[in-house]
Design a protein that fits this description.
This protein has 204 residues and is mostly helical. Helices cover 52% and strands 3% of the residues. Strands 1-2 form a two-stranded antiparallel sheet. The longest helix has 29 residues, at 65-93. It is elongated and about 75 Å long.
Amino acid sequence: MADQQRAYIPSKKIDTEFPLIDNDPHIKRVLKYARPGDYAAATATTAAGPGLMLLWERVAPSYVGKGGFAPIMRLTGAISLTAGFLMLYQRSACRLSVSADITSQANGVPLPFIVRFYGFTENKREVDMDMREMVDKVKKSKPLYGESTLSPYMQGVASRNSRYTALWLHVLPWFNFVNHSQHGVDTAKYYRQAERELEAERAK
């Protein structure tokens, strides 16, 4: 009863040049929507660490022997794999800023990158993928953002804890692992599109 009586406070709307897709995308959506170039950059980042370590060993040998060099390579590989994953996530959710005068309306700090999901940069491919995914869920009578065992209030708490966190991924990696219904978009557009498609199918 207490959860039902709490007032719902919508998330702040930030004016962007491109459509907002999701201001708190689930980590699975971010990885699913990644572009081929994102995977290529992540692979290059992952390979760079061990590659540079091998190069340095050739140029300036450490003379630690195989027993000493193997742990170094394992540690380098683990760090590089983590860096590759963060690069993939950041490029899928984010893009390097091409305009130095674009600033965050929330705190006035210049953004180090622009976010596709947030509508700060070109995202037509992701907008189309989002519409297709959500319309298909509407047709199948499935929840748009997945099943959740949390109360509406706790879903709001989860959303507020991870909303727009990709803006600070370079400071603190923070991801959304929770299915919730608060994503900053008007979901009526998915239902309208589903109705249009169903009417077109019936008219055939």
